[in-house]
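Input.
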Amino acid sequence: MPIPQLKSRTFRRVQRRTPGGKTVQHYHLRKPKQPHCGGCGAILHGIPHERPVIMRNIPKTMKRPERPYGGVLCSKCMRVAIVFKARQG
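Output.
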């Protein structure tokens, strides 16, 4: 019987086979959802979806693409936004 803390569905249950041939349950914290574009809602590529503890230790350049609106808008919406700003003057 797992400890009460592990009974919560906060933890994902993963079946693992040990070298001795037994199957045991490991408990892993679930990953957050993938980041989405603020304009169209598409999944943003080039951004890891990790827990905040891991994201804190990743360098800033690895957290989002290095372009205008990187990590906020997808490349299609970024192009539209830049054209819109240029036309406004």
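The mean pLDDT is 93.
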